[in-house]
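Example complex used in Figure S2.
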Amino acid sequence: MSKKIAIIAGAGPAGLTAAYELLKRSDVHPIVCESTTAIGGIAQTYNYKGNRIDIGGHRFFSKSERVMKWWFNILPRQGAPAADTAMRKHEIEYAAEAVVEYLCKDCMNAQIRRTSPDPEKEDDVMLQRPRISRIFYRKNFFPYPIGITLLVARRLGFINTALIGCSYLWRHTFPLKDETYLDAFYKNRFGDRLYRTFFEAYTEKVWGVPCSQIRADWGAQRVKGLSLRRALTHAIKDLLSSEFKKQQEQRETSLITRFFYPKFGPGQMWEAVTKQLRACGGEVRMQTRVSGVHTKDGKVTSVTLENTVTGAQEELACDYFFSTMPIKHLFGMITPRPESRVIEVAEGLAYRDFLTVGLLLQKMHIQEQGKKPASDAPDNWIYIQEGGVRVGRVQIFNNWSPYMVKDWKETVWIGLEYFVNEGGDLWVMDDQKLIDLGIREMETIGMIKREDVLDGCVLRMPKAYPAYIGSYTQLGVVREFVESVPNLFLIGRNGMHRYNNQDHSMLTAMLAVDNIVSGRTDKSNLWEVNLEGEYHEEKKEG
Ligand SMILES: Cc1cc2nc3c(=O)[nH]c(=O)nc-3n(C[C@H](O)[C@H](O)[C@H](O)COP(=O)(O)OP(=O)(O)OC[C@H]3O[C@@H](n4cnc5c(N)ncnc54)[C@H](O)[C@@H]3O)c2cc1C
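Predicted assembly (542 residues):
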């Protein structure tokens, strides 16, 4: 008797996890269909002449032990220093041994115990990296997440800091009653003045709409646990301490945490998973777009696949269908067409697109108040809060992993991130003009000089952010429809239209497979992932 078939749209973290779990724990044959030439979706690594770009910078950390173990099983933790550890004086917790369980017993022994890999000698390794990110505002660096330290007060100006404190106390006494939207949410937590200084412009750059139109859900995920009250309490405690200076220094270094990162960026994880899937009988078909999803008697019965090179189409029968594609696209291809109210909600969902300008430099020009000029910065990424430039964030890939950069000692490889709309002026701009714009903006804020630029490239990522605007509040209508089709699973980030990180995206895939294996028919557990509204930045990393 032939095996059951699951067709999975998308070779990103969610789709590949679903395929891996099906192969490992069921007798269902997974066929992953990916419309592009890249493995990993948003979490791919783009290789430009040996210099690698990570879209957005993917830290590997999760509160879920299941996910952490899963990652380390594919890429074990480092057991020896990386190329730059000694030079940068990084403190790393090395793993002594790795226990690796392969996907199928036919390929390898079920479980292997071995010493942890040395990143200088092996490629399949997960590095531990220190996390430093700061806000660049008025030609000064501020810690992120923001805290009130002497350095911050000095850079903001003491009068301004006092006004920020007063504005916070005012809002604390007279909070805004309606916290539906992000502006009120931020003001109630930080006061109006700090909101305007550090949150308003950046958030509007990310979403392209005023904070008064963005639902607070997004903010709740990012800033819960981060409070000015706590920052002020710390500042007062430090002031009262007899070791004021030491306390302040400790406060600043306490913001440095650690995260895990594959030697060659996030795409390496998903390329390694794909290799195992293929070796163990799974299929991953590239340049294959799912273009039609056909239902009969309330179940998905077949899917139309289109070869994006030749345009050839085939219809493949399936027992299960997993979608990680944007909900908006999925509902445009389901036949027979669902009720118009469902289609309207799906079509009304909004997204924000993203592009990175990669610049290879001889050096950067970092001028920090009270410090000597430097030719690089320690940050993984820097939030650009300056007005007058459109760049939102700068990634410094050398600091993610030295192996991301062809010549990490002699060059600095940076990514300028622009939050854009597909079809907008930046999206359609010629690559060379975008590179030129990037260089001009970086010169304007004083971080680089044109004569130090060696090369550049552009990478566009459509629908990087599912937006919490448009018909998002009516998403329940879509969910209701999905509940009525037992073998249709929406998983991942755009697949569920939720601001899911890799770990959340993977968990939704794992739970979907759990449900198939256990015979559970309701899918509510998938929608419970990433509902805790906890501040992502504050989880204990590393
Ligand atoms: C700027 C930024 C920073 C981030 N930082 C982090 C971080 O630090 N840590 C972290 O864990 N996560 C981070 N994430 C989130 C992470 O990228 C996502 O959670 C993850 O990539 C989602 O996986 P997915 O499989 O659901 O979707 P995707 O990665 O979007 O993959 C979906 C895939 O489906 C394909 N596809 C779409 N339509 C079709 C179709 N019709 N047919 C076939 N294929 C199709 C796409 O080409 C794509 O490859 C970040 C995201 C962004 C945008």
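Confidence is low (pLDDT under 50) at residues 534-542. The chain is about 35% helix and 25% strand.
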